[in-house]
Amino acid sequence: MITRVKGTQDFLDVTLFNFIIQHATQQAELYQFKEIILPILEYTDLFQRSLGTETDVVNKEMFYIKTREEDESICLRPEATASIARAFIENGVDQLPWRVFTCGPMFRYERPQKGRYRQFNQISFEIIGAQSILHDVELIAMLDRLFTERIGINSHALLINFLGCAEDRAKYKELLYNYLKKNHFEELCPQCKERLEKNVMRVFDCKNAQCQLLFRKAPKITDHLCQPCAAEWEQVKEQLDFLSISYSHQDTLVRGLDYYSKTVFEFTSSHLGAQNAFCAGGRYDHLVAMLGGKTDQPAVGAALGIERLMLILEQIKDTLTMPQQKAIQVIIPVAKEQQPLALLIADELRANDMGVEVLLEGSIKSMMRKANKLGAAHALLIGEQEQQDKIITIKNMITGTEEKVAQANLVTHLKK
Ligand SMILES: [Zn+2]
Ligand SMILES: [Zn+2]
């Protein structure tokens, strides 16, 4: 048997998947985000330049595409933000701010585990040309309202941190480096010792309990911001309070990618265990310039992991208001001779916007059982007599009552 590729999954029931897409799309429209669709294939260089060559995503998790051109390096996109910035530059978008969202699969070669796949789906929201720090709060508010009010999750928390500008980070990295190197080097795990030399802020990704304890006492970046950044950080917190959005400040939140500056945030849920973020984002003021844009464009964005959110929703399914399934009619031709007429009647009902299934196999008894299983509103029986008299026997599957109706009046009768 040929199986699916490791770390991918088949969705045989897309109810929850579509539930998320539908609500996210409606929410995005309310906030004036326009949908765009971008390619899954991109040049590897795009992610090397944007994510940084020292990140796990670029070092270990890329899916490369073998092409016929030897000097060409193409990959499956590991995330959408860099692609959106590329599209912004390449298409010369000049209407600012550019508020867009996109849904689709992303690819990372990781160890598959619960809620983590090698092919996974994200909805990405981006505002490019977002000068004011209040755009960050508006984006966070949109997501918070989406989860709380529209979808109806109440188990989530919003974590937020502020990484300042490049100068702030350079100074802070030195502080953190000195703190860990001079006083606590021997207490760090081997991986953190390595991270310390390569990209010190990456130590915060460590899950080791002893390292975490050390970080709690480490200097905090929000205590070392320049004056304008400190003012913006205050503004973010004040505006969140003003909009009654609850959050907690987590000073070790730095996000896994190199392009973030200033605001970073994550929505986490206790329903997800250790890998508990299902939506994350932040500001990336220099990404457009890093990718060759003529001018720097401040921007802020977030990505929502559909599989992660599905894991949460599966646990609270009973409390969700799912869209009502449309009533279906099941047509049962008694013998082969009535099958062509059954298809003709089905055609007419569907033209009138009714969901219909025609049963073409099995005995009457098994077809009735099937109709029941399908949750049919009515079973429409057509035997020899019905065919001759141009009528249909309608069995109400809920009450069990039967009646005979002229074929010509069927649509009006069912619509009642
Ligand atoms: Zn600053
Ligand atoms: Zn560590």
Number of strands: 16
User: What is the helix content?
Assistant: 25-40%
CATH superfamily of the largest domain: Bira Bifunctional Protein, Domain 2
Bound molecules: zinc ion
Q: For the CA atoms, what is the radius of gyration? A: 28 Å
- Main sheet characteristics: 8 strands, mixed
Q: Report the span from N to C terminus.
A: 50 Å
Domain count: 2
CATH architecture of the largest domain: 2-Layer Sandwich
CATH class of the largest domain: Alpha Beta
Read across the widest sheet, the strand sequence of neighbours is 1-5-6-11-10-9-7-8
CATH topology (fold) name of the largest domain: BirA Bifunctional Protein, domain 2
Mean pLDDT: 93
Descriptive report:
The protein is of the alpha+beta class and 416 residues long. It folds into 2 domains: 15-165 and 226-319, 2-Layer Sandwich (BirA Bifunctional Protein, domain 2); 328-415, Anticodon-binding domain (Rossmann fold), CATH 3.40.50. Helices cover 38% and strands 21% of the residues. The protein has 15 helices and 16 strands. Strands 1-5-6-11-10-9-7-8 form an 8-stranded mixed beta sheet, with helices on both faces. Strands 13-12-14-15-16 form a 5-stranded mixed beta sheet, with helices on both faces. A 3-stranded antiparallel beta sheet has the order 2-4-3. A hairpin with an 8-residue loop joins strand 3 and strand 4 (74-76). The two termini are 50 Å apart. 34% of the residues are buried. The protein binds zinc ion (ZN) (2 copies).
